[in-house]
Amino acid sequence: MSVSFISRIATPKKALSTAAVAAATVGMALSAAPAHAATATGSAADAKTIAHQMIPDAAQFNAFSRIVEHESGWNIHATNASSGAYGLVQALPASKMSTAGADWKTNPKTQIKWGLDYMNSRYGSPAKAWNFWQANGWY
């Protein structure tokens, strides 16, 4: 066999090998991304922005944010495998959030509205819900 024939065979193999390594690297990087980063609007930051717009009082927003961070990491699809609690605020049963809107499974605004209503009706405010959470590890 001539050297040029071997070069023509080796070069495509090298190119395929390089492409495979690159694809595997991208795949590993994508799979390493935290699950809580994704929401229907694109990111946890988007969900936080929506919450901040809905809860303009800084102290109440911070309390709400702390609860959501602990409960779901701002993942609107967070699901507790043992209890079935779902969403940003881990509603149980999850279907309770339907009272805030039919899109409760995918819309952070709907989940935030339900969670805020829940915290206000059960505890009086997100800050009081956070105080309870700190004392009990749940709310």
Automatic annotation (TrEMBL):
Name of one Pfam family that matches: SLT
UniProt signal peptide: 1-37
Domain Transglycosylase SLT: 64-130
InterPro entries: Lysozyme-like_dom_sf, Transglycosylase_SLT_dom_1
Gene3D superfamilies reported for this sequence: 1.10.530.10
Keywords, sorted A to Z: Signal
Provenance organism: Streptomyces similanensis
Protein name: Transglycosylase SLT domain-containing protein
